[in-house]
């Protein structure tokens, strides 16, 4: 009787151990898939960030060029205004 009980207990432990192992393997597989998906998303975001960084650099250079053009235009306007003021002053005399 004791031998039957011990054998039955060993069988139950072995079966439940295999079941747990299968569940663990399934859980590990699921977690590995999730990690792979997250890795792919991180890689995608990384390349998007690099592209945006390049665009920001290009926009900064374009803004510098525009600022220089605006400054040059303002200087030309100031010179033109000064010439006009000088012409008006000469007519008033």
Commentary on this structure:
The protein is mainly alpha-helical. It has one helix at residues 2-92. The mean pLDDT is 86.
How would you summarize the topology of this molecule?
Blueprint: H1 2-92
Helical coverage, percent range: over 70%
Largest sheet: none
Low-confidence stretches: none
Radius of gyration: 40 Å
Strand content: under 5%
Mean pLDDT: 86
From the N-terminal CA to the C-terminal CA, the straight-line distance is 134 Å
Please tell me what the overall shape is.
rod-shaped
* Count of alpha/pi helices: 1
Structural class: mainly alpha
Name the descriptors.
93 residues; mainly alpha; 1 helix; 98% helix
Q: What's this entry about, in short?
A:
The protein is mainly α. Helices cover 98% and strands 0% of the residues. It is rod-shaped and about 135 Å long.
